[in-house]
Amino acid sequence: MSLRTSRSARTGQYVALLGYLVFLAFPFLWLISTAFKPARELGSLHPTWIPEHPTLDNFRQAFDEQPLLQAAANSLIAAVSAALIAVVIATPMAYVMARHRTRLSAAATGWVVVSQAFPFVLLIIPLFLILKNLHLINSLWGLIMVYVVWALPFALWMLVGYVRAVPPELEEAASVDGASRLRTLVSVTVPLLAPGIVATALFAFITAWNEFFFALVLLKTPEKQTLPVVLTHFLGAEGAAELGLLAAAAFLATLPSLALFAVIQRRITGGMLAGAVKS
């Protein structure tokens, strides 16, 4: 009886997982289909999944109408810079918070979690005033600073968990061998944190790459705008969208995140203690 129950539960899990995957894949597959459809098929009363006459005209026209390459470069610079800076700052902070558990570190961890609930609208005015005083309005570096500040709480929260998963005995062994605290952190702890650091950097990158509100408020000139902001230019004054062009541009905008995740997924799922064997 228990074997049948186990099989039924596993089958139910697979069915639920399949349904969830279909739910996630549906918008992306429809986006791809729309991107390759000509205008005549987009206006059809009986839409189809597979374009009957696939075309690249939407992509060509999208590049002709909007500076997508420049916007993608701006997004890439902002996202990569923010992810790297956030990880560099968060890694030693997470180590201290995880290894030295005091009331202060517990309060700091709680504040990190609570800060994620703050709405963007509540933060944009003080951030705007600070950046204005620093002469960083309409600057990619000002936007990068905002992204770093926004990504740090989440990066800390993630990395604290990864640091706590590293056995302290490994660091104690390195200390017995004469390694300093800094040497132990660089040579022992950080290599074991590689999957966590990569995962944290990936999420920080995706968050910055997809972010819209801060970029809309802080960047004014077209040549400095990021890709999510430029995508809104395919919407008409009355909200009517150039559906084919918007789908083509949005499809291209999703490719960097998908490619990055595909490249580094093995690092994320790899064992944290793969390098723990002492040579």
Mean pLDDT: 81
Helix/strand-derived category reads mainly alpha
- How many distinct helices? 13
The proportion of residues in beta strands is under 5%
Assembly context of the chains:
single chain
Cα-based radius of gyration, to the nearest Å: 23 Å
The largest sheet, given as strand count, sense and whether it forms a barrel, is: none
- Overall geometric form: globular
Beginning-to-end CA distance, first to last residue:
50 Å
List the secondary-structure elements in sequence, H or E.
Answer: HHHHHHHHHHHHH
Unreliable sequence segments: 271-279
Helix content: over 70%
Number of strands: 0
Please tell me about this protein's structure.
This protein has 279 residues and is mainly α. The protein is 75% helix and 0% strand. The chain contains 13 helices and no strands. The protein has helices spanning 2-35, 39-42, 57-65, 68-99, 103-115, 120-133, 140-165, 168-176, 181-192, 194-210, 213-218, 227-231, 243-269. Helix 1 (2-35) crosses helix 13, helix 5 packs across helix 7 and helix 10 (194-210) runs antiparallel to helix 13 (243-269). The radius of gyration is 23 Å and the shape is globular. The protein starts with a helix and ends in a 10-residue tail after the last helix. Residues 271-279 have low confidence and may be disordered.
